[in-house]
Design a protein that fits this description.
The complex is a heterodimer of chains A (about 450) and B (about 120).
Chain A lengths: L11 E4 L3 H13 L3 E7 L6 H5 L2 E6 L10 H11 L3 E3 L9 H9 L3 E2 L4 H8 L1 H10 L16 H8 L3 E5 L9 E3 L5 H16 L4 E5 L5 E9 L5 E3 L3 E7 L2 E7 L6 H17 L4 E9 L5 E7 L6 H8 L3 H9 L8 H4 L5 E8 L1 E2 L5 E2 L2 E2 L2 E3 L6 E5 L6 E2 L6 E9 L2 H14 L1 E3 L5 H8 L2 H4 L7 H15 L1
Parallel strand pairs in A: 1-2, 1-4, 2-3, 4-5
Antiparallel strand pairs in A: 6-7, 6-8, 9-10, 9-11, 9-13, 11-12, 12-15, 13-14, 15-22, 16-17, 18-21, 19-23, 20-22
Helix pairs in contact in A: 4-5, 13-14
Chain B lengths: L2 H13 L4 E6 L2 E6 L15 E4 L4 E4 L14 E2 L4 E6 L4 E5 L4 E6 L6 E2 L4 E6 L1
Classes of the chains: A alpha+beta (about 450), B mainly beta (about 120).
């Protein structure tokens, strides 16, 4: 451990991502007076991250598999530009252990946990085992990957249950199975999806908690075993396991539960000998009992919500930890709740056409502004959204001293926000912030689907 | 301004194969251009075929210890090896996409190149 106690300041960092998160990281690098390198595909020549960075290199054609997912090209780019660290952002290669290993092998620091930790926590069944050992509650399940006797295993857990891919994520390779009659069919489709998406078809089962909330805890751990947990984020508003709105603190979590959540998150992270920024995800039953789901070993899309609530720059914290610095604050400071914050993910999607991606040229871009408003976005008037990548175009982050004022501000911002040329989810967010269940804090992961169903019902009645 | 004169000059200019007419006298001057004198819209037409870098990396013309085998004006066949792009873990071949004459060599031994950078131009 003694060799680890050294602080090695970075001089130049390569940002291995695009879009708003590349800008997000570049901004912190500037404030820290660290030189930056952007990478881009041929489709992203006109992107803001290319302009904002001190240097930018083209690494491949538009298709992500040949550019932003091309480990060899990105490590080569880091080498030839003389970067001493790589920030992976989220998505793309951010949770790819092979990438972290390739960066480490090239003598460059990967800003994140070690390749070993990523691969260990990336296998969801291994992550569960770690949580069990740490005394953190997990949903009853198959205790690891299931074999040919999966029928017997499923019967033992009981229905309803979740079929999940060992290497899954983003809802891929995941099925809710309500009764045994559906098990064979659903197991096979989930497995095929897992094979296609992750190249791995190991599956496991978990008991399905009905009407759960998705509650997650941001954690940070340094190289010296110090761990802190921040106030929870409520990410219950999801559509097909894709988060739409994230809020902190959760209107459902009381102080006692909050402390329990933070302790549980810290225990998982300590048991995994984790270092860096991470997120521990929990499923919370209506009884406020919570179960460990997984650890995300990267910066998350919704990290600004926590930044606003705690008042710290989490990207800076990531970089400080990677440089070998100790955590600059205590658990008490990290968990302080300074305000209420919410994030609306604005996607270039047509919410009336089943949220189909809607790439194209943005002819007008007039984001909301004013007190308590933060926009993280890479869009400008005249920008053409390519069809190759994620449809997230902006994160609207709103803060206020309490939840009532927060929602009033959110409604005002969503009304102010003007985007022309492409369809966006802004209109759908307006429906969320005026939904009675959402306003009263009565949400669970099924609320969005219920809203959509209700809308369809109204339409057919007309 | 004498618009009649302008019209007369313009009409006359059309009967000639001149594209531009300038005349100056006592500080007055007249300058008329026909549409033919206007610059062509930027239409870059080149008979040259570019050979672009297939990857980000370092260009090597040949294996270590061997001399640069390429020179301007040299004839190449389709598929001829024009060098390598070395990345951290791979070596990407650079090959001639068509037969022809090597008209321009815009890369040097050991140069760092981005993906898509033109390395050579071939005249088919």
């Amino acid at each position: 451990m003694s060799g680890k106690n050294k602080i090695t300041p970075f001089h130049k960092v390569l940002v291995a991502n695009r879009g708003e998160i590349a800008l997000r990281v570049l901004r912190t690098l500037k404030e820290m007076n660290i030189k930056s390198v952007a990478i881009y595909s041929e489709a992203d020549r006109n992107c803001l991250h290319v302009r904002m960075a001190d240097e930018a290199v083209c690494i491949g054609p538009a298709s992500s598999s040949q550019s932003y997912l091309n480990i060899d090209a990105i490590v080569t780019a880091a080498k030839i530009t003389g970067a001493d660290a790589v920030h992976p952002g989220y998505g793309f290669l951010s949770e790819n252990a092979d990438f972290a290993a390739a960066v480490e092998k090239a003598g460059i620091v990967f800003i994140g946990p070690t390749a070993k930790t990523i691969s260990m926590l990336g296998v969801k069944s291994t992550a569960r085992e770690i949580a069990v050992k740490a005394g953190v509650p997990v949903t009853p399940g198959s205790d690891g990957v299931v074999g040919k006797n999966y029928h017997a295993v499923a019967r033992k857990i009981g229905f309803p249950l979740m079929i999940k891919a060992a290497l899954g994520g983003g809802g891929k390779g995941m099925r809710a199975c309500l009764k045994e009659a559906d098990l064979d069919r659903m197991f096979k489709t989930a497995q095929a999806e897992a094979r296609a998406n992750f190249g791995d078809d190991r599956m496991y089962f978990e008991k399905l908690v009905l009407n759960p909330r998705h509650i997650e805890v941001q954690v940070a751990a340094d190289n010296y075993g110090n761990v802190v947990a921040f106030a929870e984020r409520d990410c219950s508003l999801q559509r097909r396991h894709q988060k739409l709105v994230e809020e902190s603190p959760s209107p459902f979590v009381d102080n006692k539960t909050r402390l329990q959540l933070q302790a549980a998150a810290c225990n998982v992270v300590k048991a995994a000998k984790y270092s860096g920024l991470g997120t521990v995800e929990f499923l919370m039953a209506p009884t406020k009992e919570f179960y460990f789901m997984e650890v995300n070993t990267r910066l998350q899309v919704e990290h600004p919500v926590t930044e606003e609530v705690c008042g710290y720059d989490l990207v800076k914290l990531q970089i400080q930890i990677a440089q070998g610095e100790k955590l600059p604050f205590s658990q008490k400071e990290a968990a302080t709740i300074r305000c209420h914050a919410i994030e609306h993910r604005i996607n270039a999607e047509d919410s009336e056409q089943n949220f189909a991606p809607c790439p194209g040229t943005v002819t007008e871009w007039t984001p909301a502004g004013g007190l308590g408003v933060r926009i993280d976005s890479h869009i400008y008037t005249g920008y053409t959204i390519p069809s190759f990548y994620d449809s997230l175009i902006a994160k609207l982050i709103v803060t206020a001293p309490d939840r009532a004022r927060l929602l009033a501000r959110s409604r005002r911002c969503l009304d102010d926000f003007c985007v022309e040329g492409v369809k966006t989810t802004i209109a759908f967010h307006r429906k969320i912030v005026t939904n009675a269940d959402f306003i009263s804090g009565n949400t669970d992961t099924g609320l969005i689907e219920r809203m959509l169903k209700q809308e369809k019902g109204h339409e057919s009645q007309r | 301004m004498d618009t009649k004169l302008v019209k007369e000059v313009t009409d006359w200019l059309k009967t000639t194969d001149l594209a531009e007419f300038c005349y100056g006298n006592n500080g007055d001057s007249l300058e008329i251009k026909t549409s033919e004198a206007l610059p062509e819209p930027a239409q870059f037409q080149s008979a040259l075929v570019s050979v672009c870098s297939p990857a980000i990396g370092v260009y090597h013309a040949a294996e270590k210890g061997k001399s640069l085998p390429l020179s301007q004006g040299q004839k190449v066949e389709q598929g001829d090896l024009l060098g390598w792009i070395e990345t951290v873990g791979k070596k990407h071949k650079v090959t001639a996409p068509c037969a022809g004459q090597l008209q321009a060599i815009s890369v040097q031994e050991g140069a760092v190149v981005e993906f898509g950078l033109p390395l050579f131009f071939i005249e088919p």
